[in-house]
Write a structure and sequence with these properties.
Elements (H helix, E strand, L loop, with lengths): L7 H5 L7 E4 L9 H10 L4 E4 L11 H5 L3 E6 L6 H8 L4 E4 L2 H13 L3 E4 L6 H4 L3 E4 L5 E4 L5 E4 L2 E7 L3 E12 L4 E2 L8 H6 L1 E12 L18 E4 L15
Parallel strand pairs: 1-2, 1-10, 2-3, 3-4, 10-12, 12-13
Antiparallel strand pairs: 5-9, 6-7, 8-9, 10-11
């Protein structure tokens, strides 16, 4: 029952080439920074990464992108990463853009064992009708486009069927945790981390503070330890934002 590992490298050592990886956080907040740095050192390639965004050029998942470790990105927001844009438009990276709420629900459904669900978001648009460029060729032409999805009308409104998302591994970041894997998140880190922890075969959690078993109030635990397979205390965390706007 002791799921404590010594280092991020120990925790991430078996994340293999071609794995599907769920990475928690929102923007640059609540992201598993230590796991990302470990993966940059370990070097697995051809990863499919599911995350709200891909960090920035020199931080977060942008580090793995810069190292050419990503083959496909499933996300909802990619606007702060120039290297992401370059790789996508040059045909080096496959990108599946998903409405943000739909992305969260697809992951939640995966963790709950629900194979698919209907949502009105995107129904009647290219999200449901297909044709979104997933990957470009080197000459700028669309090499792969999204397919048409099943739609159905309920009470006079059109809905689109969206499949659940699951992963081989999830890397999540919490505020506090114990060696049994019970986790408590704080503020914006509640975005995507909790549902991703439930939707992978192997969940790796890094925490700002590792506490003794029994120190966490059971009523305040967000992710029960049953979902977590490995846990470690992060060595350091950097408080960054994607863009700082200075008003004149």
């Amino acid at each position: 029952m002791n799921k404590l590992v010594a280092t991020p490298r120990d925790a991430c050592a078996d994340i293999h080439d071609g794995a599907t990886l769920l990475a928690g956080g929102f923007g640059l907040c609540g992201i598993p920074e230590n796991c990302i740095r470990a993966l940059a050192e370990l070097g697995p390639k051809n990863l499919t990464v599911v995350s709200n965004n891909c960090g920035v050029d020199d931080f977060g998942l942008g580090i793995l992108l810069r190292n050419r470790q990503l083959a496909k990105m499933i996300s909802s927001y990619v606007g702060e990463n120039k290297e992401f844009e370059r790789q996508y438009l040059s045909g080096e990276l496959e990108v599946e853009l998903v409405p943000q709420g739909t992305l969260a629900e697809r992951i939640r459904a995966g963790g709950a064992g629900i194979p698919a669900f209907y949502t009105p978001t995107g129904a009647g648009t290219v999200v449901s009708d297909g044709g979104l460029p997933l990957k470009y060729a080197a000459d700028g032409k669309v090499a792969k486009a999204s397919l048409k999805k099943e739609t159905r009308e309920f009470n006079g409104r059109l809905y689109v069927l969206e499949p659940a998302i699951t992963g081989d591994f999830a890397i999540v970041k919490a505020w506090k945790g114990d060696r049994l894997g019970n986790l408590v998140y704080r503020h914006t880190a509640m975005n995507f981390n909790p549902m991703m922890a439930t939707a992978a075969k192997t969940t790796i959690a890094e925490v700002e503070e590792l506490v003794e078993v029994g120190a966490l109030n059971p009523a305040e635990i967000h992710t029960p330890g049953i979902y977590v397979h490995r846990i470690f205390q992060g060595a350091s965390y950097e408080k960054r934002i994607e863009r700082r706007t200075v008003r004149q």
